[in-house]
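Cross-posting from the chemistry board since nobody answered there.

I work mostly on the small-molecule side, so proteins are not my area. We synthesized NAP and want a rough idea of how it might sit in this target. Sequence and SMILES are below. Is it possible to get a predicted 3D structure of the two together?
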Amino acid sequence: MPSMRVVEVKKPGSADGLALGTADKPLPNRNDLLVKVHSFALNRMDIMQRDGKYPVPPGASPILGVEFAGVVEAAGDGVTKAKVGDRICGLLSGGCYAEVRTELSADLVSGHILTSSQYVLVPEDLAIPIPDNVSFEKAAAFPEAQFTAYQALFWINDLKEGEDVLIHAGASGVGLAAIQLAKWKRAGRIIATAGTASKLKHCKEHGATHAINYKEESFKEKINEITEGKGVNCIVDFIGATYWNDNIASLGRDGRMVLLGFLGGMKLDQFDLSPLLLKRLKIEGSTLRSRSEEYTARLRTAVVKDVLPMLASGALDVRICKVFPWTEIVDAHKYMEGNHNEGKIVVTITSE
Ligand SMILES: NC(=O)c1ccc[n+]([C@@H]2O[C@H](COP(=O)([O-])OP(=O)(O)OC[C@H]3O[C@@H](n4cnc5c(N)ncnc54)[C@H](OP(=O)(O)O)[C@@H]3O)[C@@H](O)[C@H]2O)c1
């Protein structure tokens, strides 16, 4: 059986437990493309999963990594549109950098979790063609942030033209994507929060009309001031518990909030239910990774129609703050853990 190189979690826990190793190269099923990966992008869930703190959804691969860019090397018999040599990128529910196969189960049982590899299998209906003028690095950083932001703003929050939106962690990969998509939708006020002056600058440069340093001032009070007491129509939140009460206070009548993460914790000591009724609020949680392949394929179709042309024309910026060779995967994980990134962290597979 031919082999491929992979990044393994030798020991769940800190980034130092990551190292390069080898595994069997996967074979495409009927509707799959076998892609030789050029680059992949990091996401918070990679870190949580590496630490053993991310509950992998039922049916999803237990292997880390959800987005990649590379070249089609082989295709299953049922593939109709893509062909060998195509440059593609994509978002999967997991195992983006390695395919779960029975021959790998011994590694998994012994605690060696395969994370990143040279090859990945992609169902054809999830593949996204990379525009000619877009690099592999940018393409690898495109799917997760854009899918998440698109779904959060338009499918869940139903953001309409002229409405005000509050986007937390504004300089994160998802945050910068959401700011730009809200601008594309011609939202009213696009208000972002972030923790440094440099991050606030990036939020503004990408289309935020207002940027709040949540470490220096109360975003609840600023929203009240900016919206003249009305509150915002929508919130995209990743923070959870520590922002809960101020988020509820910042929503206006008929406000909607999508909860996508718990960077600030999951448990509330006390919660006053009355604003839910009095302001007629809608609050919805979502994890993209637990969605069915059919749902993700529909989202992929919408993103390819509405967002990919903006990437190709340069109207949409996929901001990459740092590119690491995969021999430095430990440093890449540590960089994200330190909250240093303004935009996406990308890892390229090198020949070493
Ligand atoms: N549910 C889903 O479907 C889904 C999909 C994708 C991503 N996500 C989640 O979305 C979030 C953003 O993802 P990403 O990959 O774009 O993140 P990222 O680039 O790693 O950025 C996250 C940023 O959040 C801010 N932050 C961290 N802890 C915080 C806290 N306790 N309070 C306030 N701000 C905090 C930090 O910026 P500051 O310096 O500004 O504090 C940090 O740089 C993550 O939580 C991720 O798990 C969810």
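Reply from a structural biologist on the board:
Welcome over. Reading the output above for you: The two ends are 21 Å apart (CA to CA). Residues 97-115 have pLDDT under 50 and may be disordered. Happy to explain the token format if needed.
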